[in-house]
Design brief:
This protein is an alpha+beta fold and 135 residues long. The chain has helices at residues 33-44, 47-57, 59-63, 65-70, 88-96, 98-109; strands spanning 71-77, 80-85, 116-120. Strands 1-2-3 form a three-stranded mixed beta sheet. The longest helix has 12 residues, at 33-44. Residues 10-19 have a biased composition (Basic residues). This is DUF721 domain-containing protein.
């Protein structure tokens, strides 16, 4: 190749076959990894699920270390986040903070993603039916 010439002009590869040039945007062009993942998630409708998963992974960063020590997000369905607390005291505390928590979660996930936070406390097991008992 001569100095100053443009590669690929008028030249063929060894073997005599011309080099195929792909059209831009036809899927064969390299993309940044983050952009490719974002495009895949958008095309499959996984963006919200991934964002909610990020909240589950960063629970302590959202609610604070002390509250995260006693609570954990359990599931997210139809705009309702269910959070489990390890005691009735912490369940009550979280219920008092639920409107603030909804606002904070929507800042992270996008407006209207979380409509309600449902707090569940520890279960004491099934109650026995029948007469009152004293011990």
């Amino acid at each position: 190749m001569k100095r100053g010439s443009v590669p690929g002009n008028g030249r063929k590869r060894k073997g005599g076959r011309p080099v195929r040039v792909r059209e831009p945007g036809r899927g064969g062009d390299p993309k940044m990894f983050g952009a490719a993942i974002h495009e895949l998630m958008a095309s499959r409708g996984w963006e919200q699920r991934a964002a909610v998963g990020g909240v589950f992974g960063n629970w302590a960063g959202i609610v604070g270390a002390e509250l995260a020590e006693h609570t954990r997000p359990d599931r997210f369905e139809d705009g309702e986040l269910t959070v489990a607390a390890d005691s009735t005291t912490w369940a009550t505390q979280l219920r008092l903070l639920s409107s603030t928590l909804v606002r904070r979660l929507n800042e992270e996930l996008g407006h209207g993603t979380v409509r309600r936070v449902k707090v569940v406390g520890p279960s004491s097991g099934p109650r026995r039916t029948g007469a009152w008992r004293a011990r």
